[in-house]
Structure formats: C-alpha cells, structure tokens
Amino acid sequence: MSKVEDFLTKDEEAEIVAAIRLAEKNTSGEIRVHLEKETSIAPMQRAVEVFHELEMDATQLRNGVIIYVAVKSRQFAIYGDKGINEKVANDFWNCTKDIMLDHFINGRNKQALVDGIHNAGEQLKKHFPFESDDSNELSNEISKGE
User: Fold this and answer.
1) Shortest CA distance to 104 belongs to which of 96, 51, 19, 81?
2) 3-class DSSP string for 92-136
3) d(Cα 139, Cα 136) in Å, to the nearest integer?
4) Three state DSSP letters for 42-109
5) Taken in order 117, 122, 124, 129, is the CA torsion positive or negative?
6) Closest CA to 54 of 113, 129, 122, 141
7) Digits of tens for pLDDT over the chain (146 positions)?
8) What is the dihedral angle through the alpha carbons of 43, 48, 52, 58, rounded to the nearest 10 degrees?
9) Backbone phi, psi, residue 64, to 5°
10) Would you put residue 65 in left (φ > 0), alpha (ψ -120 to 50) or beta?
C-alpha cells in the first residue's frame, strides 16, 4: 500500500471526520489528520512542517494537534502546538501513540486513527475543556499530501 488514496476508504474517512467532530465536542482543542505517501525526513519533523503549512498554529489558544501519517511506511507522529506543550509533560502523547501503533502494525488503519483521535480528545479536554463560546477554528477534513 503506497498510495494515499488507498490507505482509507471513503467510508473510513467519513468515520475519522466524525471521530474528530466528536472529540472536539469536549475540548477547545483542534485535531487534524494529515496523510501523505512518504517522508524523507523524520516523521515528527515532517509533522511540524505540515502543522505550519496548514496554519494550525493560528488557533487562539495554540491548542491544535496534528496526527501525521506517511502511509507507505506507516510511520506517524503526533504534534501539539505551543499552548499544549506549555501545560503537559514531554511524554504526553505517548499513550496515544501506543494505542495507534498496535492498530497500524495489524493493518487496522482506520481504527488506529479513530482511537488516536478519541484518546487525543480525552487528553485535550483535561487541559482545554470545551467552552460555550468555542468555535471550530480548523477544518475537520483529512488533509492529504503527495
């Protein structure tokens, strides 16, 4: 599997977008998923690049999170913005990564992302609970690269 289009079906993509919407109902945090064929640099470094390319650093509370996946190698990274990193420990995303890794290893791509999004939402709501005046600052759609 080396094509971004083949990584998830349309129905699976819809389930992931629904998972993002559900997770964001409990937090002011913003979650995005980005898929691309491969990366020639470390996944975390590429996640940071994509994070800025998608202007995810423009949220009011600087509490955006990107789940980046290089589909060919199934490498992935989770990166949270400055507002999150100022409030949490360095290993904050490890539990989310662990949940996702098992699913990816076993070819359950959609479940890896759905469970990762759910866990990220649970983690975010502890530090960034949903407020009545919150607005959806970033698209919930999956972004895709080459």
Assistant:
1) 96
2) CCHHHHHHHHHHHHCCCHHHHHHHHHHHHHHHHHHHCECCCCCCC
3) 7
4) CHHHHHHHHHHHCCHHHCCCCCEEEEEEECCCCEEEEEECHHHHCCCCCCCCHHHHHHHHHHHHCCCH
5) positive
6) 141
7) 458 888 999 999 999 999 999 999 989 899 999 999 999 999 999 999 999 999 999 888 899 999 999 999 889 999 999 999 888 877 888 889 999 999 999 989 999 999 999 999 998 898 888 877 677 777 778 999 87
8) 130
9) -85, 150
10) beta
Whether pTM > 0.85 for this model: the answer is yes
Of 111, 123, 142, residue with least CA distance to 29:
123
At a CB cut-off of 8 Å and minimum separation 6, what does 111 contact?
Answer: 103
The amino acid that residue 91 corresponds to is: D
Structure tokens at 144: 């895709």
- In the chain, the amino acid numbered 97 is K
Q: At which residue do the structure tokens 């649970």 appear?
A: 122
Tokens (6 digits) for 77: 């990274």
| Residues 38-54: b if buried by 16+ CB within 10 A, e if exposed | ebeeebeebbbebbeeb
